[in-house]
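Sample entry follows:

_____
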Amino acid sequence: SRSMKSNTKKTLKFFLKHLLHYRLLFALMCFAQIAGQVTDMIVPLYYKDIFDIFAISGGDKTALTGQLMGTIRMIVLLFALDFVFWRFTDFANGYFLTKTSKNISEEAFEYLSHHSYRFFSNRFTGSLVRKIYRLGGGFEMFYSKFFWDFLPLTTRVITMVVILWQFSPLISGIILAWTLVFIVLSVFLARWQYPLDLAAYKADSDVSAFLSDVITNHLNMKLFTAHRYELSRLQTINSSWLEKNLRSWNMSATINLFQSIFMFILEVGILLVLIMLWKEDAISPGFFIVVQIYI
């Protein structure tokens, strides 16, 4: 709906404001993330060289051993660079995420505290607490999806397509086409699941709100012997929570099922194409290893 899209835009704008508060650190983290991913993608090329050397029969083993040692030195150097990139990312990520979450929590509290008495009297305390908690959790999810999912995946796909194109445009084209179809399918399934996740989150907030307010007004429940009544209300709310969360969970499982089938099709298809190219002497045994590592 229009209201939902408007709230989503406002939330993303709020997250972006806090993310850019540490823009220099975030830019360095993105650079380290991209550099680490590219380094990881380059290492298999040296494994390819090793397997290609092993595949040579009748060569001068002394000269081949020298080539192998040179290749291993490059692998060690790349591992050292990779170690530096990832360790910086790990420590910077902890600092960035905790500081940003702290700032979001404080701003949310400041904004909430300026509301009127009527606002608080017409709302469950537990629900408000849960929403503040979810705001910080929502930023962590938004940040993690971008920094640990979208950015690495985009970097790896682009690097993989460019590298494989140098050896086999056919294999590179197949993986690129599969990736585009996979992205379109994932976006469609995510839009399908979003309303179910939203309903599940709302149900979770309803349960938290009910429990918080019952505990806060425990004395009144005792005085008016409303234990059975409140238990009945909890059972009704929990039943709604169970139904909505089960739908969301089953949708996630269905999406994972489709993605697994799609991945299986890619792996089998790539294997068949690799065998065909190997039969025609279009690729080396080492290239087969590179492709398997990538996918």
